[in-house]
Amino acid sequence: MTTLARLALLALLLSGCARRADWSEEDLAALAALRRTTGPLRPDPTSRYADDLAAAALGPRLFFDRRLSADGTVSCATCHDPVRRFQDGLPLGKGVGTTARRTMPIAGLAASPWFFWDGRKDSLWSQALGPLESEVEHGITRVEVARLVAGAYRAPYERVFGPLPDLAGLPAAASPAGPGERRDAWARLPPDRQDAVNRVFAN
Fold first, then answer.
1. Tens digit of each residue's pLDDT, the chain (203 residues)
2. What is the C-alpha separation between 156 and 153, in angstroms, rounded?
3. Quick one: 53-133 is in which CATH superfamily?
4. CATH 1.10.760.10: which residues of the chain?
5. pTM for the full model?
């Protein structure tokens, strides 16, 4: 049974449309497959840094840094507030603008096989990149992220990922996502410079 079929079954069972006495062994097995375990998490095959203690120390600093937004008012913790179970309690998320969806709670997300409400990302590290360049969430570009990391986090970054690339001569803001001028600036960068920025952004 696919994950989507399991979720559909779970929704049906929990909605009360099916009585407990009607659940088959297959239904119960499907529900058991969705259960979160309390044991150790499996290693993340998409991230060689997932269990790196130096990366774990850098993560919270970035998570709470409001400089990772276009106007300096939004951090990841703005919407994923630890005191509100890593969400904001609002009907629609509010970053530098207003999103079209409620903020997704992220507590325990490391054990999930998909990310965002629609499951469009399949790794935790790649999920975190989208909101940074969203015009209504953080509103910042990957060049601006790379420049902030180089200026404010060079030593902890290099402890985990190695030397930062030379970022001199990059435009003020450039990204393959977002408004036209940002895309145009990105398109003018040579591929090797795009790759260098992408690596810092992904890290």
1. 555 555 555 555 555 555 666 778 887 787 777 666 666 767 777 888 988 999 999 999 999 999 999 999 999 999 999 988 888 999 999 999 999 999 888 877 777 777 777 777 777 788 889 999 999 999 999 999 999 999 999 999 999 999 999 999 999 999 998 789 999 999 999 999 999 999 999 99
2. 6
3. Cytochrome c-like domain (1.10.760.10)
4. 53-133
5. 0.77
